[in-house]
Amino acid sequence: MVLGADTVTCVLPCSINHGGCSHSCQNVGDASTICTCPRDLILSPGKKRCVTPCSLGNGGCSNTCQNSNVGTAICKCPAELVLASDNKNCVPPCSINNGGCSYICTDLMNGTVRCSCPTTFLLGADKMTCDTDVNECLENPCAANATCTNSPGSFSCVCHCGFHGNGFTCIAEEPTDETSMSCGCRLRLEVDGLTPGPVLFDLPTLYYGAANTWIKESDGKFYNILDKHPTFQQNSFGNRSSPNLWSAHIYKRTEKCLILYQKCSRDCEKLARLTLREQTLSTNVTSSSGFGKTIQKSMGQIMCERSNDFLPPPGKRIVVYYHPGHQYGNEISTFVFHFRLCCSTLSLSDIGHVSLWNKKCDERINFPELIVG
Fold it and tell me: What pLDDT score does 281 carry?
């Protein structure tokens, strides 16, 4: 109870000015009150007045506040924003879990999102997930002499064997490229099993690329081996294997060395056989006359002149030697022809010592036959 206005009578607190409440007042005990509000209002911080929820700090809403009929605030957002998980703040849709997009999220003015993908992917059926890889190779981005390989989110271009570059630009290999390797071939006279005999004939030098083989002729020009010898790549001599040549950017020096030894040995034999035209020394080749002119001479005659020696019947065999570049060691023999070289000597008073090819390897051969041979 509290003292009334007459200062004589004791009365209930709510009977004096409605206990200070703007709406309902409830007596608690003898001297205190509790103010209550209708269901659509709430007590102000002073616990006396009933107000709308939105009148207190905009109901906690970041944007628009709407009073409900149960004394709560309902937050609303502009069209381009959405309500966050706290039901108070308005945020762009993409700020919540990336708008549900797996990659790129773009906010739209109507409060929705548009999902998009990197250029290497396509949007899936759900319009949210980038689950289909774009096959860039269908657009032929690589050079004409390159292979395109598609991969998730990317692609690669690799020049074909016989070309070099970054895959977008591929240049045909040349025998003069730094990655090319050379192989010297020559014919020598057989002396013994260990000692190389005199050089009888220098064959064209072989040059190897990743996919091509060239020869360098005596005129200093390079020719593709197949232009000179169309059957060169056919493995018609023996049963030796024909391993693929190195790709210069893949193989180490040791591996390149081993492969070069394999090819150089085999190819010098091939070149020698093709040059001698299926085991004959009668093939005519161009040779210097010593007077600034060139003449045609048989291989046998050139070899006898180079050996500068008397080789009576049965003569000596001809050995093919190869030399796989100066950095890979000395000359090595690879093949011995079964036929023999016989040379006769003739002393002429006005010329001097002359070496002539004894084509038939016959001791009884006479001088006219040597000249004809």
Answer: 85
CA-closest candidate to residue 127, choices 109, 155, 154, 108: 108
137 contact partners, CB below 8 Å, separation of at least 6: 148, 149, 150, 155
Q: Which two tokens stand for residue 220?
A: 């200093």
Q: Residue 1: CB partners within 8 Å, gap ≥ 6? A: 10, 11, 12, 30, 31
Looking up tokens 């996919």 gives 211
pLDDT at 119: 82
Q: Do the bridges between strand 170-172 and strand 154-159 make them parallel or antiparallel, or are there none, so unpaired?
A: unpaired
Q: How far apart are CA 212 and CA 175, in angstroms?
A: 8
User: Residue 15 in contact with residue 2, Cβ under 8 Å?
Assistant: no
- Cis ω for the linkage preceding 314 (within 30 of 0): yes
pLDDT of 241 = 36
| DSSP state, residue 350 | T
Write down the pTM of the prediction: 0.59
- pLDDT value for 185: 93
∠ CA(173), CA(174), CA(176), 5° rounding?
135
Q: pLDDT per residue over 126-137, tens digit each?
A: 999 988 888 889
The DSSP bridge partners found for residue 149 are 156
Contact by Cβ (8 Å): 322, 331: yes
Nearest in space to 129 (alpha carbons), one of 100, 95, 97 = 100
User: Percent of the chain scored above 90 by pLDDT?
Assistant: 43
| Residue 317, phi-psi category: left (phi > 0), alpha (psi -120 to 50), beta (remainder) | beta
